[in-house]
């Protein structure tokens, strides 16, 4: 699994109030990741840090093992009034970016095709529905070739039809090898397309789930490991979802692995001197305990 | 920068927010020159003061032409906040330049001045208009939404600062005897003093140009402060 973005112990405060505290996570490439959380939980801050619009107070954000990543950013606020047609607006934005005009026109043509907007390219954007306006806003974020698209609350204000169309759009972006990270209040709406969900709660990424393989039974494992032990080789095999320093020179490492892989991964960690703090099924934890209790009662 | 200037100007034109201030200015210009003949510098002095207030209006409408969501995107593409605001100021100055030219040329084209119009009158007339245009932009910038949250406060702020600047210049208040304040307060009075000498002169002392230069320098300092402050703000 290619790690596209890796956050190591990232902390961010605003006016001495912690927004994110020691957050560590890995985001694989060519996936759609949703960041979920309440208002003010730090979703947008995390997104802006990944997009390079805000710097973390401490910690590191590493892209593609240090290689440059082309990022497109779609902010939360969708402009109400854009007194231009999509072609005019995209041309202006491209010129402001300093893109060569011929290349820009070709790029705009291809974007209009991807977003099925050829017929509306000469209609003023102010006459568009919210869903169509949003398409234009995503297009402006993709004016340059893009590896990663960051979207802040792209679903807000979209009606059901627009949401369905947005889902289709996400799938087509993924098919073009574009990674997407987006924030939303709830993921139920995007369940069909999102691969990975990160939940922000109390300044931490408290729960991650890979939608992609949700049918496969998964286990959540938390290890405690000395800070001196390197995890570089293991990172290639698993995605570490959370890392937290403990006071004793150790750290807690949380990951989700398939039931099939669990023994192998546990062995690898134990060989490195780790101790298991938690090992539990990711889905249906209560069912597992219930069936376990039943088994005990039968005996 | 060229792309930004072009886009911001096109956006301003498409929003039609220029229509009210430009129409009011043209109407005042026409009304002012209804009766003929008119004194030259007195007339220019009056229209330059009108333009001083109109430019407060124009500045706010240009700075607020994009809605905030759109502005956020444009700044992201420009990758340079100070460049973005500098382009807006240049657009304000461009509109001010056009209005200054209209204000200077209109009475000449329609022959509404008393006889005796010289090139020097035209030069001083243009400097009076354009210096107050730049001064008005510089003062009004500090009341745009970048620094003032409420839209109502923006308008009251601009009107207040422009009226106070004019009142201080006209009243020749005791406060102006404090030397340091003459450097800090908006140098509107220099323009008024220059324009009140009457029309019967054929040359202008260097001091007059120095006084106009000070109005420009004072305004450029304020504009620089504004751009530095907004560029460093976290708002995006």
Write the layout of secondary structure elements.
The complex is a heterodimer of chains A (about 300) and B (about 240).
Chain A: E1 3-14, E2 17-28, E3 32-36, H1 43-50, E4 58-63, E5 71-74, H2 86-97, H3 101-114, H4 130-141, E6 148-151, H5 160-175, E7 179-184, E8 196-201, E9 204-210, E10 218-226, H6 232-235, E11 240-245, E12 250-258, H7 259-271, E13 275-281, H8 285-298
Parallel strand pairs in A: 3-7, 3-8, 5-6, 6-7
Antiparallel strand pairs in A: 1-2, 1-4, 8-9, 10-12, 10-13, 11-12
Chain B: H1 2-15, H2 19-32, H3 40-63, H4 68-78, H5 81-109, H6 119-141, H7 151-171, H8 179-184, H9 188-195, H10 206-232
Helix pairs in contact in B: 1-5, 2-3, 3-5, 3-6, 3-7, 5-6, 5-10, 6-7, 6-9, 6-10, 7-9, 9-10
Summarize the structure.
Chain A has helices at 43-50, 86-97, 101-114, 130-141, 160-175, 232-235, 259-271, 285-298, and strands spanning 3-14, 17-28, 32-36, 58-63, 71-74, 148-151, 179-184, 196-201, 204-210, 218-226, 240-245, 250-258, 275-281.
What tags apply to this protein structure?
heterodimer, A: 299 residues, alpha/beta, Rossmann fold, Alpha-Beta Plaits, four-stranded antiparallel sheet, 8 helices, 31% strand, B: 236 residues, mainly alpha, 0% strand
Please tell me the overall pLDDT of chain B: 86
The percentage helix of chain A is 25-40%
How many independent structural domains of chain A? 2
Supply the number of structural domains of chain B.
Answer: 1
Tell me the CATH topology of the largest domain in chain A. Answer: Rossmann fold
Question: What is the CATH superfamily of the largest domain in chain A?
Answer: P-loop containing nucleotide triphosphate hydrolases
Structural class of chain B: mainly alpha
Calculate the mean pLDDT score of chain A and round it. Answer: 78
Cα-to-Cα separation, first versus last residue of chain A: 43 Å
Order of helices and strands of chain A: EEEHEEHHHEHEEEEHEEHEH
What amount of the residues of chain B lies in strands? under 5%
Q: Report the β-strand fraction of chain A as a percent range.
A: 25-35%
Global geometry of chain B:
globular
Count of runs of 4 or more consecutive helical residues of chain A: 8
């Amino acid at each position: 699994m290619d790690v596209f973005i890796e956050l190591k112990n990232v902390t961010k405060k605003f006016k001495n109030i912690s927004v994110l505290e020691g957050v560590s996570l890995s985001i694989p490439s060519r996936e759609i990741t949703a960041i979920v959380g309440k208002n003010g939980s730090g979703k947008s801050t995390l997104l802006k840090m990944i997009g390079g619009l805000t710097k973390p107070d401490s910690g590191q954000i590493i892209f593609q093992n240090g290689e440059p990543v082309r990022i497109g950013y779609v902010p939360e606020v969708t402009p109400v009034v854009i007194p231009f047609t999509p072609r005019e607006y995209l041309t202006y934005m491209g010129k402001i970016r300093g893109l060569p005009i011929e290349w820009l026109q070709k790029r705009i043509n291809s974007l209009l095709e991807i977003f099925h907007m050829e017929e509306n390219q000469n209609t003023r954007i102010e006459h568009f529905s919210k869903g169509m306006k949003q398409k234009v806003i995503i297009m402006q974020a993709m004016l340059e070739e893009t590896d990663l698209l960051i979207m802040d609350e792209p679903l807000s204000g979209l009606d059901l039809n627009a949401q369905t169309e947005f889902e289709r759009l996400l799938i087509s972006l993924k098919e073009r090898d574009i990674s997407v990270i987006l924030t939303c209040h709830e993921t139920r709406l995007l369940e069909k397309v999102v691969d990975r969900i990160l939940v922000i709660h109390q300044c931490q990424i408290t729960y991650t789930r890979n939608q992609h393989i949700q049918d496969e039974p998964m286990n959540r494992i938390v290890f405690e490991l000395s800070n001196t032990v390197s995890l570089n080789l293991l990172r290639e095999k698993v995605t570490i979802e959370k890392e937290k320093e403990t006071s004793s020179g150790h750290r807690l490492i949380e990951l989700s692995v398939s039931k099939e892989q669990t023994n192998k991964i546990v062995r690898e960690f134990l060989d490195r001197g780790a101790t298991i703090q938690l090992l539990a099924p990711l889905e249906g934890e209560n069912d597992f305990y219930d069936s376990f209790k039943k088994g005990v009662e039968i005996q | 920068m060229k792309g930004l200037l072009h886009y911001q100007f096109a956006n301003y034109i498409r929003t039609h927010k220029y229509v009210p201030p430009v129409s009011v200015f043209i109407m005042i210009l026409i009304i002012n020159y209804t009766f003929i003949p008119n004194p030259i510098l007195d007339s220019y002095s009056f229209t330059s003061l009108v333009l001083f207030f109109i430019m407060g209006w124009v500045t706010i409408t240009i700075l607020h032409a994009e809605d905030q969501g759109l502005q956020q995107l444009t700044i992201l593409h420009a990758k340079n906040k100070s460049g973005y605001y500098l382009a807006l100021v240049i657009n304000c100055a461009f509109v001010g330049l056009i209005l200054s030219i209209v204000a200077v040329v209109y009475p000449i084209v329609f022959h509404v001045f008393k006889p005796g119009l010289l090139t020097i009158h035209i030069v001083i007339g243009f400097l009076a208009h354009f210096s107050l245009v730049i001064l008005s932009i510089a003062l009004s910038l500090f009341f745009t939404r970048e620094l003032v949250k409420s839209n109502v406060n923006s308008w009251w702020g601009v009107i207040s600062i422009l009226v106070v600047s004019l009142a201080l210049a006209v009243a020749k208040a005791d406060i102006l005897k404090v030397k340091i304040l003459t450097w800090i307060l908006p140098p509107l009075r220099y323009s008024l003093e220059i324009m009140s000498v009457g029309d019967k002169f054929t040359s202008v002392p260097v001091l007059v140009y120095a006084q106009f230069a000070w109005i420009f320098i004072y305004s450029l300092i304020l504009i620089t402060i504004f751009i530095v402050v907004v560029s460093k703000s976290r708002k995006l």
